[in-house]
Fold these 4 entries.
Entry 1:
Amino acid sequence: MRLAFVAGLQLLPARQRAVLLLRDVLAFPAAEVATMLDISVAAVKSALQRARATIAEAAPAPDRITEPADPRTRELLEAYMAAWEHADPAAFARVLRADAVLSMVPSGVRADGNTACLALAATAMDGGWRMEAAGANGQPAALAWWHGEPYGVAVLTVAADGIAAVTVFADAALVDRFARPAATGGPGPGRP
């Protein structure tokens, strides 16, 4: 699944999320979903229509996303990581698009627009961050350690004109899952 789909699921109410997963991911017929959720078939169809519309609205346009191997993508990822490692909100502002979105998972905290993203990020930019480039679901990502402890993974949605979205998965266990093993087979270079 694309990260946009996963992030979009967080925007859906529980019933719409259940219907979308049961119908579009697991391919259950509408009648079976209605029975499972104890709602009418019409309610299933309506919930699915609303869920698809929400997901479509949340997904970035294909022409606004660059591939992880793209030099511009790598440049923006490096600048993003440097801004956090050096506690430099101005550098962070330079890599974000004006309409950028910063989302925190699982807390659900979200900031829309460059100014709101900066306000949210500035409180956490304390110089205690260390990051390592990674990839997640075909998108550039940064593994993050805060004061030497694993923190989580920031997944970037990058466009040619800057970072359109940052989704921070604040789960320390993800750092170990994404860390690259060193050539010797030992711990990855980003491990404390």
Entry 2:
Amino acid sequence: MVWVLLFVLIGGVILLGYMYLLSGNDHLQEKQLPCRGLDAHQRIQLLFISDIHNRKLKESTFKSMRSVDLVIIGGDFVDKRTSYERFMHNLSILKQWGAPVYFVPGNNDHEWKFGLFLDDLIKEEVIPLSNEDEYVELPNGTPVVLSALDPYFMKPNRNASYLEDENCLQILCVHDPYVFKRMNQVYKGRFDIVLCGHTHGGQIRLFGFGPYERGGWKIEGNQSFLVSEGYGTSLLPLRLGTKAECHWIELTPKH
């Protein structure tokens, strides 16, 4: 009996160590995505990352990216565990290309303990999007409309004045994919790309089962829909059956 208990204990420790290693093992997901909103000469290299929480970004992962024209942080950039030093380190990694950086709030960002989080982002030249639409002309001259849904900071919904421009690439970012699924069907269909996070892919999956579906891409007609499994972890720094990931997406014209 003692040997059985010892075996179970050792096995448990090994499993926990393996899960801890998985939580810190970066996966840079690269994808080329044809989009209807781009002209023949237009290209965009987009970095999307969500659910960093309390993780420290690995410099080596992000230095491997060839170029970045636009950075979107899809919520839960911080939580109650995040130090100000780590916040600044992670921002410095995401700002290294000189590309515009946009932030869409998640459910844990309100736990920031050093002041008003959105104001601190603005001080660091990160642009928060909270229930609003932003017309952006990227440094390479490509126009984009960025839209965001934010049920967490409860900012008032700004008039969606740019959404009628069908000649421009339209990207929606909403932290929780469930919020997107509850949107009006006509409104949902206006976007070329939808970027979400929140679920961590279930974070810990046993025998393929978890509290949420695995993340990944779904493409229906002209709309591409991504649920990222996130870069960090909530609560315990453990993963099983999911990936700690960020996304480098090359947007190209759709012929």
Entry 3:
Amino acid sequence: MKKWMASSLVFVVLLAILVGCGTQETQTIHISVAASLKDVMDDVKPLYEKSHNHVKLEFDFAGSGQIRERVVNGAPIDGVVLASVTDMDTLMDKKLVGNKQQIASNTLVAVMPNKSIPTNNIKEELAKAHVIAIGDPNSVPAGKYAVEFLMKEQLMDSVKSRFVKASDVRQVLAYVESGNADIGFVYKTDAMISKKVQTAYKIDSALYNPIGYYSAVIKDSDMADETSQFMEYMKGNQAQRILKKYGFGEVK
């Protein structure tokens, strides 16, 4: 009788454990990501959630400067992936995020509508363009890199009156796709996803600072451990293959 009771008790305990495991609450991680990584994250999300059954990824996409301001203002975010080491270092200086880690790199290009015929000289192209699309340099890293190029080539004064400024790099792409801009500065990876634009000019990487993508966990996040695991995943083989598929470079 005692053996039967002991066996029954063990069975009940094991059943409770199994039921508890089966009903584990789903944990949602909210991450703010640079707009140029949207396609990558759309691919990453189902793969990560499949291998992490009790984690749900929730992304929002914007310019890195906008994301930086959201973190500073206390937005409910668990982690960030930015296309600007300057914006990330600002958050680190304010002790709002943990250590940064680079997950990818990129390059700057100038795109034009498919119907346009490039002159093969970007200075001539910019001189004749009526509208030049650029990310707002105050919040969009691609815009900052473009300004660096224009300053080094001593073109800024002659072109700035013809700028149309965008809230993120994907909006720059949209301006050129729609024909509302004659030329625009975007990342190589953005140009690759569009069938409506051509990469007219590759900007010499010596004329702007290196473009890196950096991830970090928000220090006061309740999901810091889970977010840290996801950031490590972005450095792993599966995520790096997806980044490479969309044209992102390896960490430099």
Entry 4:
Amino acid sequence: MDVSCVVTGGARGIGRGIAEQMVARGARVVLTDLDGDAAARTAAEIGAAEGLAHDVRDPAAHRAVALSAARHGRLAAWFNNAGVGFDGTLQELSEEQVRMLVEVNLLGVLWGTRAAVDAFGDRGGDVVNTASLSGHGPVPGLSVYAATKAAVVSLTMSVQAETPRRVRVHALCPDGVATQMVADMRPDGLARALVQSGGRMLGVDEVAAQAVALLGSRRVVRTLPAWRGGLMRASTLAPSLAQGATALFAAQGRRAGRS
């Protein structure tokens, strides 16, 4: 029987990269996006089974996508990749931006994970949630975004402990990735500088490959690169000291942005 998978936010960026790699593995891929036309166009370009309009804030929409995927084969993998990334401090963001960050980045993952686990059935499957390095520690200038990604990491670990043995739930936490989301950040903003402070920006294809590599594994949280994850987690042990390091990282990121 054919195996199907779902990739949300699949019309571009990391989502498209994941969808392309899953198509190459022989999966019947249903990719979704808020922009339904873009989803359909990308599906045709990469040979996916279907491209659907999908608002991840709607729980019923996830269940409908699961039913669509089941028509193409046994649903075995679900990638919660859709996300938004407005940069700015808590005081600077509009109420609409705060609400969208929480509803898309957190509730979208929550509803998608629940729909996937329900749809997998007794044979189980894998849920891969695209989180972020920012979910491991303080990121001034991305406070709300980082909060949603920290919640995704926590959700992933807790749901993994709740689910049947044949269901595996993973979170991928990449450092800055060369996507439109990062390109849209304010060039002179603190968030942009911190995202660039790790040196080389990660490529879409390498992040997508790591997401796909989690399938079938028992790895719950994977951070790219691992050393940045260790540094971020250490910052949570002494948040007051981490504030002093922020200026150093920001300066390093601004130098990287100019090079």
